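Lab channel / #folding
Pinned by the channel admin:
"Please post every new chain as: sequence first, then the structure tokens as a reply. Keep commentary short and put observations after the output so the thread stays searchable."

First post following the new format, from NK:
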Amino acid sequence: MEDLVFKPDGGPLHEWLASALADVTPDGFRVAKPVCTRDGAWVSHGWSATRWVEGSEPDYSAISTWRKIVAAGRAFHRAVAHLGRPDFLDTRQDWWARADKAVWGERDIRFRPEFAAVARRLQGALEPLGRPQIVHGDLTNNVLFAPGLAPAVIDISPYWRPPEYAEGVVVADALCWHGAPTSLWETVDVSVAAVARALLFRMATTNERVAFGADGVDVQDEARRYDLATAAIGL
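Reply from TO:
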């Protein structure tokens, strides 16, 4: 079992991944595929497992890293474009799912005063981003690299959105948390509209966390980061 990674029960997400990834041919990326028990179950005693994949986190201070992460995401999204929409997406109620639905107009949200002005600037830049499909909505810290191997895409967070939205999340994270240059969105060819919706998503997630009483949220600091990132894309 040395090549397995164990996690607490993945529930419907893990079971869906197990089935979906069996029908995906990696091309330009690797993926950590779910592993079943000897009797065919995907969860046992509250635990699920995936194959261990070789790789480590990249140097996030390098522009080339962001190009590689976006390229890996594009390869992954091409490979999963044929997959259907899983039913469990309708029942998700975690912070991220609630925030995602809010920024796509599928539920209402009232932003905290610290976020309200930035939210208005971002909302003014929103545009359609293309056809929805399964995307990995949290690529930033979930692409590993190893010499001589394709990038490994791990910890898949599925959403039913246009692929450029997922790319926008990468750029938004890079601007907010990794000190990326303001021109990154142009460097990796991701539109302002995609980054704007992604920033709104990350800010809405913070908003949800605070609303539900999560610990350790520095609202003032995060508001400052979202403001700077919004200015970086010219809004």
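NK: The chain has one domain: 54-232.
TO: also worth noting, The first helix runs from residue 11 to 21.
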